[in-house]
Specification:
heterodimer, A: alpha/beta, GMP Synthetase, Chain A, domain 3, Spore Coat Polysaccharide Biosynthesis Protein SpsA, Chain A, 2 domains, eight-stranded mixed sheet, three-stranded mixed sheet, elongated, B: 503 residues, mainly alpha, five-stranded mixed sheet, 5 strands
Chain lengths: 622, 503
């Protein structure tokens, strides 16, 4: 270290001497350093006490090294080795140029690890210049975008094709489907009434079991001991010195207007700022958001990752791409409009500390900040409260695979990379990853911390979003059911049947509900006896049970979701939830159609349309 | 986990001897000619349905709760248990399960095996508990559910989580399908909720607290109304029908001393029921005394204590209840819940409570003997080993005759169930829900071998669907049929060609 980066005065004093830092800022930084246990430079950048350019120039001066602006003095491409890209991004060091026999490396983080890496790759004959970490990241993206992009798209599909949704239907699945259809038609031709009775019974029994599973989940999820896992005391007991570096991925597309509120929410996280590694993941063609992010003059904890244009243009692909530049031990994803509870990261660390070693993912709860905006947001909130406050904690307790929610899932970085991260072809990549992780004998936990999102307040927008979710569930179901025996062996019987009814049940009930409802309304209006033959007593009782108690139960538990969340004003609205189910079915059929015609198409949900968001934006801009 | 498995296993070991013991008690009372109309009616209904060519549950009728009937279904298919005594064993099974569950809860509370067993025995020996369990009615299920209701209240006091609300709501909804008294129990519980629900929730939104508890029952009620509409065309048939179980003793109020004395009033039955309950269960006072220092426990104790009393007062006000014991028996379950509500009693308190429980048993027997309905008296007579004097002799005589003449017979179970019980077989019966009955009624040309009809002047005659359709049958007979039985208020007509065939 001494050999390359010698210095006479401490960095802080040097920065004061150069008038980059005030004495007060240094004092604050030193006090935070004691508390957080990170390096002074990281704290100064994280707190935004000076511009990154000034800091790195001063750093170069401090170590008596030259400072280079890599954007003006591009490195020699021949020195780049794609095998080392991960190290470049992790250690923030890249080979810059050859000067005589000496390899000069540009480094933003002059650490012993970076020196060791350079020595190992280029031998004793090396030298260093200082540069900004943003330059390194920018250059890496420029020079290796194709490599990163390809790996983001193809890594899983090539290494584990069985787990990739790139192929929607496998040949055995298509043959099975065709045979089933053929057999059904044949049976209907030969024994129409008997066949329809059997189909009717199968649907009724499936819905009954689906209802049964949700009753169990509600019962288990209603238990306080499952509900409150991490207490405030546990959070208070955490030593900030020992907290791990946390990467936060924020994929965005054409959402420039929510940037101020987003960055504000992220700054408010109760976590040592210098241990945050926040990636604003923006699509290359989204110049508006990229420019907006640049003009905000964000602190050093924020990094902009530009994702090159390639197909499929999905969120998981963008996240996979950004993962190449991530340096945290833990990683999480937030959507642009998310507002996580400030202590969420700490709660997750506490939850990881108390969980078994094989717990590699912790899902936070999701809910909405604009619940009371209109009927749709109320319904959406009721649904989410039930899902995240009852179902997910219960799924965890029962060891049933958890279909992760779209955001606020926190991973151990090492394992996430080991499992090849997200499937870019799956439009509910999180749900798929939750099942994949469980199959690999890892566990997914749930923590009692909430991220507040923007509930969709417009029907069209809602249907677009929901159809994508259901399509993703269909993809997930098809992927994991390619080899049901393997799935059964890897999940066990509870996990397997839980998967069938929780993931499969969500799809089937959305598709079957309008058919059953249509038949019922037809019977009610016409008083016809045409349907009587396919409703023998047993089928009739099962249908009646599902109609009355199944639906009644779902109304009740929707109400309980609001009750548990203390959203008391939403309770009466639970009675109107059957109308919401109609929307679900519309989205279900749209999803089915898209699965066949355009399986990887990412139906973009428009965010920032809530009237609540406007106030938020104005507040953030202040 | 292992401790949990052990306590489950232990509870199972306790369940079996209790089952044997209570079964022997039941056999004993049946052997001494104790009968119970409700039990027999239930068995007659369920076996009639199950023996029909096409099993349709709606044929059971929708004027009384169905779960007590469904619990008999396994007995119908179990060889050796398919008899008119099955309801008695079904309730014994439920009672034993209740005691096993309670035993497990006691173990979880930290009571020793010996104390748990002693407590269990003292509870069983209380006459109202024993009566509820061995009389073959829905009372055993009601006891079980009432225990769960109290257990939910206890959870509400101790934990106050959503599960407590779910339990309360769902138990109430299930109660509706078990016991006609549910509405009174539910109404009585409503004012009590403020005592036990978490104060913060009550302050935030009291309506939400009530909504989360009431909605399941409301759904159950609406579902029942829908089923009534679907199968009978009248969504309120279960209230409109004179013979509805949901009306209780309303149409026979003048037959019962309790209703003559207090019917239509609230406070008087409340006071009298309080006296009756405290005489039957003096140990309740001790529990109240033990909990008065602790605000939350006291609230829980008050709910367990006051809930049945208010239910009695309400049920009497609406002329539903014919005797307070038909609700006070629930105190046995309340008493069991007290042990779960309170922290584990100290050893000296354990001895005190056992003595008080024994005292309660003694005073319970005294009050049971002092004031009871005919049915309670009969049960007590049988239990002490004396033969019960046979009643409803006319029905039984008819039943015996039908047993000796087992031809195809048209009869309405509503009025003729005792005769059917005595007949001891459902074979060859033509009942109102059956196709043959409907055809015979429609054509007014019965092609049935035998028709049983009740005297139109008899109290029950209005409910007899045979009389309703063949309204002159009793008096004038019907063409092609000959009267072959005419005793008391029953007549049986047989088809002439059938008579000839026999001749």
């Amino acid at each position: 270290m001494k050999q390359f980066f010698e210095h006479k005065t401490p960095l802080g004093e040097h920065l004061i001497k150069l008038k980059i830092l005030t004495a007060g800022e240094l004092e604050e930084s030193l006090s935070l350093q004691k508390k957080w246990g990170t390096r002074l430079g990281d704290i100064i950048l994280a707190k935004g006490f000076c511009r990154a350019y000034d800091f790195y120039s001063a750093l170069a001066d401090h170590f008596n090294c030259p400072f280079v602006d890599l954007l003006k003095n591009n490195p020699e491409p021949s020195l780049f080795n794609t095998k080392d890209l991960a190290e470049y991004a992790d250690l923030l060091v890249i080979p810059w140029k050859k000067e005589g026999g000496t390899t000069v490396l540009a480094v933003a983080d002059p650490s012993q690890k970076a020196i060791d890496f350079a020595l190992e790759r280029f031998g004793e004959n090396i030298d260093f210049v200082i540069t900004s970490k943003f330059d390194i990241i920018w250059l890496l993206q420029n020079n290796a975008d194709e490599f990163f992009s390809k790996s983001a798209v193809n890594e899983l599909a090539e290494r584990k094709p069985m787990h990739s949704a790139r192929q929607v239907f496998t040949h055995p699945q298509l043959i099975g489907l065709a045979l089933t259809c053929y057999l059904l038609v044949l049976l209907i031709c030969l024994w129409p009434v008997e066949t329809l009775i059997v189909v009717n019974l199968l649907i009724s029994v499936f819905l009954l079991l689906n209802f049964g599973l949700r009753a169990v989940l509600t019962w288990v999820g209603g238990d306080r001991s499952i509900d409150v896992k991490v207490t405030q005391h546990m959070v208070d007991m955490l030593d900030e010195n020992t907290l791990p570096t946390y990467t936060i991925l924020v994929p965005m597309y054409k959402e420039a207007e929510v940037l101020p509120a987003l960055t504000r929410a992220l700054r408010q996280l109760d976590y040592p700022l210098s241990k945050l590694d926040i990636k604003l993941i923006l699509e290359e063609d989204d110049t508006e958001t990229i420019e907006a992010a640049k003009t905000l003059g964000l602190e050093g904890i924020f990094e902009i990752i530009r994702v090159p244009i390639s197909q499929p243009k999905t969120k998981p692909k963008a996240c996979n791409y950004a993962l190449n530049f991530s340096r945290g031990e833990l990683v999480t994803i937030y959507d642009a409009e998310d507002k996580p509870e400030p202590d969420q990261l700490k709660k997750v660390v506490a939850a990881f500390n108390m969980a078994p070693d094989n717990t590699v993912c912790i899902q936070s709860r999701l809910n909405y900040f604009n619940a009371n905006e209109n009927w749709l947001t109320r319904m959406f909130t009721l649904e989410y409260s039930l899902w995240f406050d009852f179902y997910l904690p219960a799924l965890e307790a029962l060891k049933i695979p958890i279909p992760l929610g779209g955001t606020s899932n926190h991973f151990k970085m090492k394992v996430l990379r080991e499992v090849d991260a997200w499937d870019p072809y799956n439009v509910t990549e999180d749900a798929d990853l939750g099942v994949r992780i469980t199959q690999l004998k890892y566990r997914v936990g749930v923590v009692n911390s909430t991220t507040y999102e923007e509930a969709n307040s417009q029907v069209g927008n809602w249907i677009r979003q929901r159809s994508r979710w259901i399509k993703g569930y269909m993809q997930t179901y098809l992927v994991h059911m390619r080899n049901p025996v393997h799935l059964y062996q890897s999940l066990g019987h509870i996990g397997f049947w839980g998967f069938q009814f929780f993931i499969g049940g969500t799809i089937i009930s959305a598709l079957v509900a309008p058919i059953l409802l249509g038949l019922y309304v037809f019977w009610l209006i016409t008083d016809t006896t045409v349907l009587n033959p396919i409703f023998p007593p047993l089928a009739q009782y099962l249908s009646l049970f599902n109609l009355l108690f199944g639906n009644g139960f779902f109304i009740y538990i929707s109400m309980l979701g609001a009750f548990k969340r203390h959203y008391y004003s939403l309770i009466p609205y639970a009675l109107t939830i059957p109308a919401y189910w109609v929307l679900l079915s519309i989205a279900g059929y749209k999803a089915l159609w898209q699965l066949i015609t355009n399986p990887f198409y990412w139906e973009k949900t428009v965010h920032g349309i809530s009237s609540y968001q406007v106030d938020e934006k104005q507040e953030a801009e202040k | 986990m292992r401790a949990q498995a052990n306590s489950r296993l232990l509870a199972l070991f306790v369940f079996l001897p209790i089952l044997v013991g209570l079964s022997m008690a039941t056999i004993w009372v049946i052997a001494h000619q104790y009968t119970n109309d409700i039990a027999y009616m239930n068995w007659a209904r369920i076996s009639a349905i199950l023996s029909a060519p096409e099993v349709r549950l709606e044929d059971l009728g929708l004027i009384y709760p169905h779960i007590p009937l469904y619990q008999l279904i396994p007995f119908y298919y179990l060889p050796g248990l398919n008899s008119f005594d099955a309801p008695f064993f079904a309730t014994v099974f439920v009672g034993s399960a209740l005691l096993a569950v309670w035993f497990r809860h006691l173990q979880q509370r930290g009571y020793s095996l010996t104390i748990s067993l002693v407590l269990l025995v003292t509870i069983v020996l209380h006459p109202q508990f024993l009566w509820a369990i061995t009389s073959g009615t829905e009372k055993a299920l009601s006891l079980f559910l009432f225990y769960l209701l109290c257990y939910s209240c206890v959870r509400m006091v101790h934990v106050g989580d959503v599960r407590a609300f779910i339990m309360l709501g769902c138990v109430m909804a299930i109660f509706f399908f078990v016991d006609q008294r549910t509405f009174y129990l539910f109404l009585a519980l409503l004012p009590m909720i403020v005592l036990i629900a978490p104060q913060r929730m009550l302050k935030d939104s009291i309506l939400s607290v009530y909504a989360s508890i009431s909605l399941p029952l409301l759904i159950a009620l609406c579902s029942w109304m829908y089923l009534n509409w679907l199968f009978t065309g009248d969504s309120l048939q279960f209230i409109h029908d004179e013979g509805s179980g949901f009306l209780g003793a309303k149409h026979k109020a003048n037959e019962f001393q309790w209703l003559q004395l207090t019917g239509g009033q609230f406070f008087e039955p409340l006071v009298l029921a309080s006296i009756y309950s405290l005489l039957s269960y003096p140990v309740l006072i001790w529990f109240l005394y033990k909990s008065y220092r602790h605000k939350l426990l006291l609230r829980g104790a008050l709910v367990i204590l006051l809930h049945p009393l208010i239910a009695i007062a309400l049920a009497t006000q609406y002329f539903f209840l014919n005797h307070p014991a038909n609700i006070t028996f629930l105190y046995s379950a309340g008493l069991m819940a007290f042990f779960i509500l309170m922290p584990r009693l100290k050893k000296t308190d354990q001895k005190v409570v056992i003595v008080l429980l024994l005292l309660s048993n003694l005073s319970g027997w005294a009050t049971f003997s002092w004031w009871s309905t005919d049915e309670m008296k009969n049960w007590q007579t049988a239990l002490v080993g004396e033969m019960v004097e046979p009643n409803h002799l006319a029905d039984k005589k008819l039943g015996k005759w039908l047993r000796d003449n087992p031809e195809q017979t048209m009869i309405d179970l509503r009025v003729g169930y005792r005769a059917v019980v005595e007949r001891r077989s459902m074979d060859q019966l033509v009942l109102p829900f059956m196709k043959e009955f409907k055809v015979a009624v429609k054509k007014r040309d019965a092609q049935i071998e035998q028709i049983v009809v009740i005297n139109p002047e008899h109290d029950e005659a209005r409910r007899d669907r045979v009389s309703q359709h063949f309204n002159t049958l009793y008096l004038n007979g019907i063409a092609g049929y000959k009267r072959v039985y005419d005793q008391d208020y029953w007549r049986v007509y047989r088809r002439i060609d059938a008579v000839k065939r026999e001749g």
